[in-house]
Design a protein that fits this description.
Order of helices and strands of chain B: HEHEHEHHEEEHHEHEHHEH
Radius of gyration of chain B: 16 Å
CATH architecture of the largest domain in chain A: 3-Layer(aba) Sandwich
Shape of chain A: globular
CATH topology of chain B: Rossmann fold
CATH architecture of chain B: 3-Layer(aba) Sandwich
Helix content of chain A: 40-55%
Oligomer: heterodimer
Strand content of chain B: 15-25%
Number of helices of chain B: 11
Largest sheet of chain A: 5 strands, mixed
Number of domains of chain A: 2
Radius of gyration of chain A: 21 Å
Order of helices and strands of chain A: EHEHEHEHHEHEHEHEEHEEHEEHEHEH
Distance between the termini of chain B: 42 Å
CATH topology of the largest domain in chain A: Rossmann fold
Helix content of chain B: 40-55%
Strand order of the largest sheet of chain A: 4-5-7-6-13
Chain lengths: 355, 234
């Protein structure tokens, strides 16, 4: 069996990034993700990689732009206010079709907010975040194991589609400890081939230009149409989810990340009392796993969306289910985390009112 | 080239192009084209190029250089790009002594957007956002980048030149050669500030503009070497 270690979520990100063959980190301190740059500064040194503590998140995302354009796997981590600062860079990176990895360990907002766990950056992550027509591949881990494994998946998807990828964690996942299985052979960066876009000097080939602008009449429209075709391909091929006990369910909870863990506990209470409750957990938030949810809504008449915000993913659930089902909501914004009994009470109330 | 008659960009582009060949680094060069008139620089250099967000050239350069230290990375930036929106990035790249070459074109105005006041616009100088002349009581004083950066321990080489006369153009080429060679020799951060003409933005003829740099602008921004650690270390 592979090596198992008890780890903090934030530390699992670091080991996951290194195992994914990434040797470039640039970032700026912000709670609750400081354990990532702290451990990264040690680990990148040990692995002969690059660690840069930047003057701002703006500089960090642009260093990633440079490193990705140079053909190397590059990542940064931050928390909500810092991710807001990165949106300009992400828009340019998306416009230049470059793959980078950004980990957001979400905290309460808006503004400086607080340092408690939240899911209030869902819209920002799944709607592009910055200016222009674009989307970022967004993964939602729900265990420390996911935090170890998702960086590799994120880099693979980002490179396959030449698109930035985000991992959307929260303060609770980052700060908690769980056993982590080192479930795959670490990738040696030397085994990663130079991608076809890499700026490495034009010796022996045509020169390359990486840019997000085109002023030729009609050309930017063409580029946007091409990119939207890419997004459709991602939506068709990369929807990921986990469905637990949904087959016989009369009602299904939809939750991701920390909320999915709370929902699983509440579901157990409900099942013990004979209530047929299932759990649908999106793993990709963009592309949202709409197809399965849409099918499910032809059979299941009640969904309960649980989020650590005032209601953001609920919009995607409504779009996916095309208003065929009744959709209830339990939200805890500003750093609040729902408890299993609180959620069970909500389930009981809805279940009691069902036919 | 898509630059106006009398503009200094063309001259500086030519110098850089010549140096990439003379120093035999063209095939491992990566250039950064800024936001501003010289955004078109990505079309004019026969080497790999990237176009980053406004002012972020030094950060993007840092990413490329650290990811591929064998590349020769140059960041070409105007005064809006480097001395306004990208102030943090240039100061910290200099502070880290990043091993990159920065070419800073100072023409005291925002050219591409139509002649607005720049951080380098001289006191009393007219622009489309200071129509009665830059009022230092309301609009403050210009940014002197070489002087500002020379307060730091980080940078290896800082020089201010102008592309007005053949003599000055030769001096500029010499400074840029030093700035590129420093990178080849892994010495660290080099920046050459170049006073350049913008006849269109200034509402002058090319000849008047050249004269104005000589007689007015270079009085406010004195030419010369502000830092040369190679000399200090001798």
């Amino acid at each position: 069996m592979a090596e198992k270690r008890l780890m903090y979520g934030n530390h699992a990100v670091v080991e996951g990034v290194i195992a994914a063959g990434c040797r470039f980190f640039a970032g700026y301190p912000i709670t609750p993700q400081n354990e990532i740059p702290e451990l990264m500064s040690i680990r990148m040194n040990e692995e002969g990689g690059v660690f840069i503590q930047t003057e701002s998140e703006i500089a960090a995302i642009n260093m990633l732009f440079g490193a990705a354009a140079a053909g190397k796997r590059a990542m940064t981590s931050s928390s909500s206010p810092g991710i807001s600062l990165m949106q300009e860079g992400l828009s340019y990176i998306a416009g230049a079709d470059m793959p980078v990895l950004v980990v957001n360990v979400i905290r309460g907002g808006p503004g400086l907010g607080n340092i408690a766990p939240a899911q209030s950056d869902y819209y920002q992550a799944t709607r592009g975040g910055g200016h222009g027509d674009y989307f970022t591949i967004t993964l939602a881990p729900h265990t420390v194991q996911d935090l170890f494994e998702f960086p590799r998946l994120a880099f693979e998807l980002a490179e396959k589609y030449r698109n930035p990828a985000l991992i959307l964690a929260d303060g609770l996942l980052g700060q908690m400890m769980e056993p982590v299985e080192f479930s795959f052979e670490p990738i040696d960066p030397k085994d990663l081939p130079d991608p076809e876009w890499a700026l490495s000097g034009c010796g022996g080939r045509e020169r390359r230009i990486v840019r997000s602008y085109d002023l030729k009449q009609g050309r930017l429209e063409e580029l946007n149409v091409l990119r939207s075709k890419k997004y459709k391909k991602i939506k068709d091929n990369e929807q990921r989810y986990d469905a637990v006990e949904c087959d016989d369910a009369h009602m299904v909870i939809v939750a991701y990340g920390t909320c999915a863990r709370v929902a699983a506990a509440a579901m157990r209470i409900a099942r013990e009392k004979g209530l047929k409750v299932g759990l649908f957990r999106p793993i990709t938030l963009w592309p949202f796993p709409s197809d399965v949810l849409s099918d499910m809504s032809k059979r299941i008449k009640n969904f309960l969306v649980v989020e650590m915000n005032c209601g953001q993913m609920i919009d995607d659930v409504k779009l996916a289910t095309e208003f065929r089902s009744k959709i209830d909501f339990l939200g805890r914004p500003g750093g609040g985390v729902p408890t299993p009994p609180e959620l069970y009470k909500k389930i009981e109330g809805i279940y009691g009112g069902m036919q | 080239m898509r630059y106006c008659p009398g503009c200094g960009h063309g001259v500086v582009h030519r110098i850089i192009g010549e140096l990439l060949v003379e120093l035999n680094v063209r095939e491992r060069a990566v250039g950064i084209a800024p936001v501003g008139c010289s955004v078109f620089a990505d079309e004019y250099f026969n080497c790999d190029m990237i176009q980053p967000p406004h002012g972020r050239g030094p950060a993007v350069s840092t990413g490329i250089k650290r990811a591929r230290p064998e590349c020769i990375v140059f960041s070409y930036q105007g005064d809006g790009d480097l001395a306004a929106i990208g102030t943090a990035e240039i100061i910290h790249a200099a502070g880290r002594n990043e091993n990159i070459t920065v070419i800073f074109i100072n023409n005291a105005i925002f050219g591409m957007t139509g002649g607005q006041m720049a951080p380098t616009t001289l006191p009393g100088m007219r622009s489309t956002t200071s129509v009665k002349g830059r009022d230092i009581k309301k609009q403050g004083y210009p940014m002197k980048i070489c002087e500002l950066l020379s307060a730091l321990d980080g940078p290896y080489y800082l020089e201010r030149c102008a592309v007005t006369t053949p003599k000055n153009i030769i001096k500029t080429k010499k400074a840029l050669k030093t700035a590129f060679r420093n990178q080849v020799e892994n010495k660290g951060f080099s920046l050459v500030e170049i006073l350049s003409m913008c006849p269109t933005g200034w509402g002058q003829t090319p000849v008047q503009a050249k004269k104005w740099v000589e007689e007015v602008m270079s009085k406010y921004y004195p030419l010369g070497v502000f830092r040369n650690r190679a000399e200090e270390e001798k």
